[in-house]
């Protein structure tokens, strides 16, 4: 965790210049006179003239107390700014993960058990199309379909009336009616790849001796497959949690732009462009922590499901 | 046998049978296989793995099906319950289960033709595991690694009988006790990987016995086990059979096991049954030439090769050329990341051994005894933790291989070569036979390309393979031929010592003597010395002049092979020898088995 925070801070301070340089550049562009003395004063106030390690400890000290600093660009505390977006991002990520699993697991099992059947070929074809289509393109197509055929409002996660409304069941319902489009878009390629992984893994397990043993016991075919080979082939599913989290949060930037989702992706991109270091730093730190937590959760789940891992 | 029986018979119809009767005049045939054929359908047509097989099983008797790999015996046994993996399918025949002739369902006439039932139907599922149960070869992979032993055994009970969870657990404990698993209360909640091979096989047997089956099909149940454990498992199956009057169909390739347990024998070859009969009749007067050959190659093994004795007369054994002086190997020792001392696994413990020039030395032991590790230490593929490996080079210099670096070892590695156990995985499937054999020569870099080519052809001839093999890939060859390729690769750089690690274990009996004779032939021509590592005493007796017995990393006994085999000095050697099944049914029950328990 410490190493992660150090690297995150090093990353955000790494580009030459600081927020004030780009601030000055913007001012100069718009024709304002830049007052060097004012900039220096600001620089001193934010501690930009201090050595790296001092800056780091100031920052991390704040973070530990829940203070992520103040965004230069928005002139608001970073914590406030990030919080809601992060929550929405995580919700979206979880929903997508659920969607992926709910779809990939049965399809994968079906494709493996009925190998080379029509159903398998259909699933495989759709899977490859899903893998090959870029998310943003798929997003545009789906938006078009949704607007033209279903007449639903597709941009953002909330209808206008609920945008700034406090949380309520109605707002939650509104969220549900909006979230399915990004979930499908973000989940498709992951589903496709998971179906392939599940199919390959299960095919490896289906003809193992222990499956024959179970069959010789008199177990029915579907119960047998679900109880034995699937149980072992499911490991990669659990492992996906680890990488799915950070990927969904950072990788969905383009989709989030296209759909104008109020998630963290677009904000982070903006923060990085503007060298808004406290905001960007907070994002990077959170992303890293999420990956670590994700990995931890998936490792714990793996150990729960597979006793061989537990006992080593 | 009865080849005119109609292939479709209505289920439940009475089937006339007047052949076998027990002493009360009752017919004891419980399972009848009539004209069974099983095919594997491929794009190039159907291949008949089982071809018109007819067999009978009697209550309380054991029928052994013998045959070499690929003879269709395993597929036959799976066809009975219709659990052949695709693309295999039962093509024709009948499998009649006479349920009324068993102790349980005595009385009402009740005969089922299993092949008339759909493979996924409830009817056949009810018979699987209840009336007919199976045990498989690989105790490692035949149990699910992620389910507890108790769950897997108990499942068999709950599938066929309505019992509460509590009752199921009690019955499972009872079963585990019956198959002599120590501490069943703890074992029931353990996972298969916490068990040894023998214990897993016991658990498999417990699972098979869960519903007191009428017929037990055991598909090579002891092949993957050590001889001492094999003897225990065979005893166990026997005693259970005596108790419950169960009919056993036992599949094996080991004539020793057959002699030990069979009442009747069926010999299979290329999917057909070539001979059936009483165990004594077949062992004493085999009719079919294949059975005769099979029995001959078994009898041939288990005694010293005459060829070898003659060779030793002509050229006596010379001075020691590879000496292991207190070689010790510890795996995984050292400090772990918290600085705590890890004790590691002591695989080889102060092994003293010498290989003399022109001699064959056998290292025998059970799995995990450290024999392979010792072999690798002697070749210095593994680092040696302590001790010396003294190698006398061709020019008479004595080198200690133990402290050498990889660069210094290049020379000795050309002189000491290995032949591995599994001819299927030790050859790269993407290289031609020519490339495989040439590889050590290319690595040595002393010969030009045309010279290497000529040498490879010479080697192919030496090991008895045709020139046409040069351009072909390993998959085109059988196990025995592949092992010849491995041997050709080993002798390519003109070595002086060959370490053959279980080089014949993966081969059928009739091939074993061929390969061993080939090695003897090469020894005569090329002046080689061999170390043969094996768990099979018969092979060692045939091939080796001296023997070293390993137990838990230590060499417990070493000496002249015949001397050790006839008058074993150490208790462990005695127990090992007494566990080896003798391929003579008349010896059954006469031999006293000694169990060895280490006193520490």
Would you write up a description of this structure?
Chain B: Residues 31-295, 322-577 form the ABC transporter domain. Chain B: It is an enzyme of class 3 (hydrolase). The complex is a heterodimer of chains A (312) and B (600). Chain A is mostly helical and 312 residues long. Chain A contains 16 helices and no strands. In chain A, helix 5 (78-113) packs antiparallel against helix 6 (118-132) and helix 5 (78-113) runs antiparallel to helix 12. The relative contact order of chain A is 0.14. Chain B has a domain at 306-567: 3-Layer(aba) Sandwich (Rossmann fold), CATH 3.40.50.300. In chain B, helix 3 (149-160) crosses helix 4 (165-178) and helix 7 crosses helix 20. The longest helix of chain B is centred in the middle third of the chain and has 18 residues, at 227-244. Residues 1-23 of chain B have low confidence and may be disordered. Chain A binds chain B through residues 207-210, 212-221, 227-228, 231-232, 305-308, 311, and chain B through 78, 81, 83, 85, 120, 122, 125-130, 133-134, 136-138, 141-147, 155-156, 159-160, 191, 193-194, 204, 207.
């Amino acid at each position: 965790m410490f190493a992660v925070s150090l690297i995150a801070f090093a990353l955000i301070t790494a580009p030459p210049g600081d927020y004030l340089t780009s601030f000055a550049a913007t001012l100069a562009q718009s024709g304002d006179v830049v007052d060097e003395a004012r900039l220096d004063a600001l620089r001193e106030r934010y501690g930009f003239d201090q050595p790296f390690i001092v800056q780091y400890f100031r920052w991390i000290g704040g973070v530990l107390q829940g203070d992520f600093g103040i965004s230069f660009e928005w002139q608001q505390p970073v914590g406030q700014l990030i919080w809601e977006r992060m929550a929405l991002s995580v919700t979206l990520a979880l929903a997508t993960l659920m969607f992926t699993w709910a779809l990939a697991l049965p399809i994968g099992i079906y494709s493996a058990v009925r190998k080379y059947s029509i159903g398998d070929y259909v699933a495989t074809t759709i899977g490859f199309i899903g893998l090959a289509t870029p998310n943003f393109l798929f997003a545009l197509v789906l938006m078009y379909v949704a607007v033209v055929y279903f007449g639903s409002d597709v941009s953002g996660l909330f209808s206008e009336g609920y945008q700034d409304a406090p949380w309520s069941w109605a707002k939650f319902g509104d969220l549900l009616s909006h979230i399915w489009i990004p979930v499908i878009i973000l989940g498709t390629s992951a589903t496709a790849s998971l179906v392939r992984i599940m199919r390959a893994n299960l095919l490896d397990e289906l003809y193992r001796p222990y499956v024959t043993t179970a069959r010789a016991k008199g177990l029915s075919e579907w119960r047998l497959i679900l109880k034995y080979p699937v149980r072992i082939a499911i490991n990669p599913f659990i492992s996906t949690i680890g990488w799915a989290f950070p990927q969904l949060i950072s990788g969905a930037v383009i989709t989030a732009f296209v759909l104008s989702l109020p998630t963290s992706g677009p904000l982070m991109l903006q923060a990085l462009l503007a060298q808004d270091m406290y905001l960007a730093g907070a994002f990077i730190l959170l992303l890293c922590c999420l990956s670590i937590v994700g990995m931890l959760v998936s490792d714990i789940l793996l150990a729960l499901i597979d006793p061989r891992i537990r006992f080593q | 046998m009865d080849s005119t029986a109609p292939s479709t018979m209505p289920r439940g119809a009475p089937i006339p049978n007047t052949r076998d009767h027990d002493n009360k005049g009752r017919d004891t045939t419980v399972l009848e296989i009539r004209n069974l054929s099983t095919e594997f359908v491929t794009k190039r047509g159907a291949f008949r793995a089982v071809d018109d097989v007819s067999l009978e099983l009697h209550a309380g008797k054991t029928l052994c099906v013998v045959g070499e790999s690929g003879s269709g015996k395993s597929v036959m046994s799976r066809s009975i319950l219709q659990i052949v993996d695709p693309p295999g399918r039962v093509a024709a025949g009948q499998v009649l289960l006479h349920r009324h002739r068993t102790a349980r369902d005595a009385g009402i006439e009740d005969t089922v033709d299993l092949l008339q039932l759909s493979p996924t139907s409830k009817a056949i599922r009810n018979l699987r595991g209840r009336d007919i149960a199976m045990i498989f070869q690989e105790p490692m992979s035949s149990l699910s690694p992620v389910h507890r032993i108790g769950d897997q055994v108990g499942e068999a009970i709950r599938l066929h009988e309505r019992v509460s969870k509590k009752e199921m657990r009690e019955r499972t404990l009872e079963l585990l006790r019956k198959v002599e698993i120590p501490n069943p209360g703890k074992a029931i909640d353990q996972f298969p990987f916490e068990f040894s091979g023998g214990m897993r096989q016991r658990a498999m047997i417990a699972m098979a016995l869960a519903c007191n089956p009428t017929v037990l099909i055991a598909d090579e149940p002891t092949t993957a086990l050590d001889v001492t454990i094999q003897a225990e498992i065979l005893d166990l199956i026997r005693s259970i059979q005596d108790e419950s009057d169960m009919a056993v169909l036992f599949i094996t390739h080991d004539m020793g096991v057959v002699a030990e347990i069979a009442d009747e024998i069926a010999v299979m070859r290329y999917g057909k049954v070539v001979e059936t009969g009483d165990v004594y009749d077949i062992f004493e007067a085999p009719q079919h030439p294949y059975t005769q050959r099979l029995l001959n190659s078994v009898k041939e093994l288990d005694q010293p090769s005459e060829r070898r004795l003659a060779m030793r007369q002509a050229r006596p054994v010379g001075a020691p050329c590879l000496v292991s002086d207190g070689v010790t190997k510890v795996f995984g020792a050292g400090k772990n990341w918290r600085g705590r001392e890890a004790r590691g696994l002591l695989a080889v413990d102060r092994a003293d051994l010498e290989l003399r020039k022109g001699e064959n030395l056998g290292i025998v032991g059970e799995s995990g005894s450290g024999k392979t590790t010792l072999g690798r230490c002697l070749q210095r593929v593994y680092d040696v933790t302590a001790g010396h490996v003294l190698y006398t080079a061709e020019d008479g210099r004595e080198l200690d291989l133990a402290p050498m670096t990889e660069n210094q070892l290049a020379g000795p590695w050309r002189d000491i070569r290995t032949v591995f156990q599994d001819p299927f995985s030790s050859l790269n499937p993407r290289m031609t036979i020519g490339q495989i054999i040439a590889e050590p020569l290319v690595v040595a870099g002393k010969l030009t390309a045309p010279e290497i080519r000529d040498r490879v052809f010479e080697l192919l001839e030496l090991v008895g393979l045709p020139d046409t093999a040069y351009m072909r890939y390993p998959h085109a060859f059988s196990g025995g031929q592949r092992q010849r390729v491995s041997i050709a690769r080993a002798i390519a750089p003109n070595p002086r010592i060959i370490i053959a690690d279980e080089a014949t274990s993966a081969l059928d009996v009739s091939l074993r003597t061929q390969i061993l004779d080939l090695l003897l032939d090469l020894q005569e021509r090329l002046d080689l010395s061999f170390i043969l590592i094996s768990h099979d005493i018969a092979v060692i007796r045939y091939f080796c002049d001296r023997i070293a017995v390993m137990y838990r990393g230590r060499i417990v006994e070493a000496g002249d092979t015949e001397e050790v085999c006839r008058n074993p000095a150490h208790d462990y050697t005695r127990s090992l020898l007494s566990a080896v099944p003798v391929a003579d049914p008349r010896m059954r029950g006469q031999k006293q088995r000694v169990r060895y328990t280490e006193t520490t």
